[in-house]
Design a protein that fits this description.
Layout lengths: L1 H16 L4 E7 L18 H9 L1 E7 L5 H10 L3 H4 L21 H6 L4 E7 L19 E5 L12 E2 L4 E2 L13 E3 L2 E5 L3 H21 L4 E6 L20 H23 L6 E7 L26 H4 E7 L7 E3 L3 E2 L3 H9 L14 H6 L7 E4 L12 E4 L2 E7 L20 E10 L21 H17 L32 E2 L2 E2 L2
Parallel strand pairs: 1-9, 1-10, 2-12, 2-13, 3-4, 3-9
Antiparallel strand pairs: 2-11, 4-7, 5-6, 7-8, 8-18, 10-11, 14-15, 15-16, 16-17, 18-19
Amino acid sequence: MAKWILILAGLFIHSVSGSPPNIILIFADDLGYGDLGCYGHPTSHTPNLDMMAAKGLRFTDFYTTGAVCSPSRASILTGRYQTRSGVYPGVFYPSSRGGLPLSEVTVAEVLKSQGYETAMVGKWHLGYGINGTFLPTRQGFQHFLGVPFSHDQGPCQSLTCFPPNTRCYGTCDLGEALLPVFMNEKIIQQPVNFIDLVPLYQEFSKSFIREAAQNQKPFFLYFASHHTHYPQFASAKYTGHSPRGRYGDALLEFDGSVGELLQAVWENGIQNNTLFFFTSDNGPETMRMERGGSSGLLKCGKSTTYEGGMREPAIAYWHSKIKPGVTSKLASVLDILPTFASLAGAPLPNKTLDGYDLSKLLLNGGESPRNTFHYYPPSIDPAKGIFALRFGKYKAHFYTQGAFHSETTPDADCHITAGLTAHDPPLLFDLDTDPAENYNLLKGGRVPKDLEPVLNMILQERDRFQNSMEYGESQTNLGKDPSLRPCCNPECTPKPNCCRCQEGRSQK
């Protein structure tokens, strides 16, 4: 009798838990809080993301850890602040010696250990290194199609829009390698054909989903788009179709990619067991004006620790599992790894994690275990530590600084001329009533009696966090070596202009 009870109990548990879910993580680039239709932009056409928001869970208080690309990408994959992995200050370049340390455990490695098929598409930007030391294939991804760094980190003045030979307006880095496209660890195209790039990503992603579904294997797909980073581009299908101009075209193509992923999941009949999670790496590059994105009602943008630099749109969508709604519960890219691990039934890595499991929030409308968030600037200095701290609904700024990426807005606090300023007592804002950070609650340095307990708790949390943080060796400060720039013709001269190939064939 006891044997049958155990068997029945096992069957019950299996029927409740089911098979581990497929997971598609969609990461936009430089997309602002106010850029999507579902977040209030009047001329952004984003029907697929808007559908996910309407039928899934839309976050209003979701944060990235870095106000520039590489740090936030390290955090979303490891569940750790970038300070622990050493992905600071700033970002990686094609000739950077460093990268995300191989000792870090990524969400891809966590899920792969549970039998998941893993693939990454798009922008990596976590280092290349000697012989591709830091490529995604060395970090738990079985398949990789994409570019090791940002698409403006190369001479992309030849970037064209539809119709052919019409040059897009934009500037990029000169003197770097021509932008390569990798399939796993092999260059299949150099320089990249921007017009065909996203359709290539879409076909690869759909094929990966189809094969995993046919083989009845759970899968993890990390779709890290180049959109909507400046300079914008789009394939012929999307160019000239948005009332928002070139930025809108790029956003439209990004949303189209989301639609292709949704369609692939439905066509393979796995919609009831597939979680989509979407967010962005940092705020908009407002210095580019209409080509830089929008932070909506939030203050400033990229490279700042104001809300516009680090609060991002985020949507969780799982057909038949996640109830439609909007949540103001606090959440972060740090929570991705522990949440996915929980859903997959995977053990957490033996590392200090800064993220929390949000599965109860996603599936049951529960509370978020997160009550704090710590804001680091791009130019992290361990002696200064965090620039700001969110504690519940309150945000305290200990340091403020404008940035070149946040130029052109009417707010002088955002500009590079707004130098590093220490605040003691800190600037204090109630983000529930003042998400734009307009009204300092400690104006004139005076602390009202009713806010004394709040300020004391904030200062205690800052000190606790600062004292507990272990800073890894900076990987972006390990220097540069021009010979590390990837080239499909390693023996050719003169570099980098001779590095040209198509589908693995050199062009001499």
